[in-house]
Amino acid sequence: EPEVTQTPSHQVTQMGQEVILRCVPISNHLYFYWYRQILGQKVEFLVSFYNNEISEKSEIFDDQFSVERPDGSNFTLKIRSTKLEDSAMYFCASRRDGNYGYTFGSGTRLTVV
Amino acid sequence: AQTVTQSQPEMSVQEAETVTLSCTYDTSESDYYLFWYKQPPSRQMILVIRQEAYKQQNATENRFSVNFQKAAKSFSLKISDSQLGDAAMYFCAFRYGGSQGNLIFGKGTKLSVKP
Fold it and tell me: Could you tell me if A29 and A104 are in contact, meaning their C-beta atoms sit under 8 angstroms apart?
């Protein structure tokens, strides 16, 4: 069964550093998403991406965040200057179209120290 | 704005028994989708079951079924013949209809299964 692949599985970074989280969505999917889950809390929407541009973003997704689909397969989330409160599990998800469900990756655990 | 409420932070069930997890949601839309996701200790998000709002028939996937009450805006998950591997966090999620749309999650219910 096709999978959404996320790398790395765990990243530790110093506060103020830039991090790039990588995702390879399922190849025939059209919609791409980033979500985050702070430990013990609910899963929160960050951004959606369709047709090579951001289609929707939450208030969490401020100027420190950006997304790219540089080569038609990878889908990246960049955090420019990490803060302690950015520590969370970050999930990438993709969806085909219509009423198809989302497929989530296994997540990247980001720890900011 | 759409909200999803899971009123049971934790639930416990005996192995082989049946358990029901509650979820209510609030929306003024008529076209939407509802989902239950399972998150085991590995923290991967696994789709358990989904329901289209326009379908009156409750969705079923093996031991998992839902009780979808559209007028009451209720979407509960029933797990029959519970197994140890069912122990996980369960999240209810909502997406409005249309080609795009992000998931809105509830806070989750932690399910424990006792042997």
Answer: no
Q: How far is A83 from chain B (nearest CA, A)?
A: 22
pLDDT band at A39 (very low <50, low <70, confident <90, very high): confident
pLDDT of residue B99: 63
Kindly determine whether residue A104 and residue B46, on different chains, have CB atoms separated by under 8 Å. Answer: yes
Question: How many CB atoms lie under 10 A from the CB of residue A24?
Answer: 16
Question: Which one of A31, A56, A104 has the shortest CB-CB distance to B45?
Answer: A104
Judge whether residue A72 has pLDDT over 90.
no
